Automatic annotation (TrEMBL):
Keywords: Cell membrane, G-protein coupled receptor, Membrane, Olfaction, Receptor, Sensory transduction, Transducer, Transmembrane, Transmembrane helix. Putative odorant or sperm cell receptor. It is a multi-pass membrane protein. This is Olfactory receptor. The chain crosses the membrane at residues 24-45, 57-76, 96-118, 138-162, 191-223, 235-257, 269-287.
Length: 312
């Protein structure tokens, strides 16, 4: 239940207070967000309409791009508005909504990365049983479970936030609403709530990273029995996924699996996590994945032929 609050809105201090730097922030991160939208939508559309990208790996990549797109959208538009505004005011309800969206799609991304690792483990270590184990129905069930888990995690963040009373000040030294910055403004002892927060968010990031790294150690060990060409192809796919995992989970662990201590680099790490990672993920998957690039070229070629016929 929500506590009695005298604070009905918060003021975000943003990334900088310098007007010139604020305009620079707008330009730079608008470029990153535009690239995020275009890149992830391109992957989503390519996988949706390509006949060659029907394997479980691309099924999970589809949802990873969707989660990245929504995750970045929960932060970036607000950052743009605030970078051009002198008053960065956000209401209490808007703040809770942003926390909900941030953790919903952030957890969805983490869980989807785990599912992609499971898919690679089955494909490489149990190739004969792969079509049965990772059937379409199983993949859909796994995505539904991951979505439910993400929702429960996000709801937990909101429940913890609703337990915090705010009686002033209302200045959040951040560019977005998250539970950790709000804990510093609460008019109560937040030790227990912070412990629950770290246990929840921090455990998801840390346990997911351990599961992922363990799975890839097993995968790499099993590759010793594969052919040279099989090892090359498997290593290429696994390397791409490991890069994405490190880009996503290392900043996540830094932010959420630690005591409530503020570091000067905090905003930089979270900007990279919320804006940079969703921008880099589609680049990594398209630049290092020959099948995705080939499918994109084929779709573009078909589109050009259709356009030419229509003009004729």
């Amino acid at each position: 239940m929500q506590q009695n609050n005298t604070v009905k809105e918060f003021i975000l201090l943003g990334l900088t207070q310098d007007p010139t730097k604020q305009k620079l922030v707008f330009v730079i991160f608008f470029f990153f967000y535009a690239g995020t939208v275009i890149g992830n939508l391109l992957i989503i559309v390519t996988i949706k309409y390509s006949r060659t990208l029907g394997s479980p790996m691309y099924f999970f990549l589809f949802y990873l791009s969707f989660a990245d797109l929504c995750f970045s959208t929960s932060i970036a538009p607000r950052l743009f508005v605030d970078s051009l505004s002198s008053e960065k005011v956000i209401s209490y309800n808007e703040c809770l909504t942003q926390i909900f969206a941030l953790h919903l799609f952030g957890a969805m991304e983490v869980f989807d990365l785990v599912l992609m690792a499971i898919d690679r483990y089955v494909a490489i270590c149990k190739p004969l049983h792969y079509p049965t184990i990772m059937s379409r129905r199983v993949c859909i069930v796994l995505i539904v479970i991951a979505s439910i888990g993400s929702f429960l995690h996000s709801i937990t963040q909101i429940i913890l936030a609703l337990r915090l009373p705010f009686c002033g000040p209302n200045l959040i030294d951040h560019y977005c609403c998250d539970l950790q910055p709000l804990l510093k403004l609460a008019c109560m002892d937040t030790y227990v709530i912070n412990l629950l927060f770290v246990t929840n968010s921090g455990a998801i990031c840390s346990c997911s990273l351990m599961i992922l790294m363990t799975s890839y150690i097993v995968i790499l060990y099993s590759l010793r029995n594969h052919s040279v060409e099989g090892r090359r192809k498997a290593l290429s796919t696994c390397t791409t996924h490991i890069i994405v995992v490190l880009l996503s989970l290392v900043p996540c662990i830094f932010m959420y699996a630690r005591p409530p201590v503020t570091f000067p680099i905090d905003k930089t790490v979270e900007v990279f996590y919320t804006i940079g990672t969703p921008f880099l993920n589609p680049l990594i998957y398209t630049l290092r994945n020959a099948e995705v690039k080939q499918a994109m070229r084929k779709m573009w070629h078909i589109k050009n032929i259709s356009e030419s016929k229509r003009l004729i």
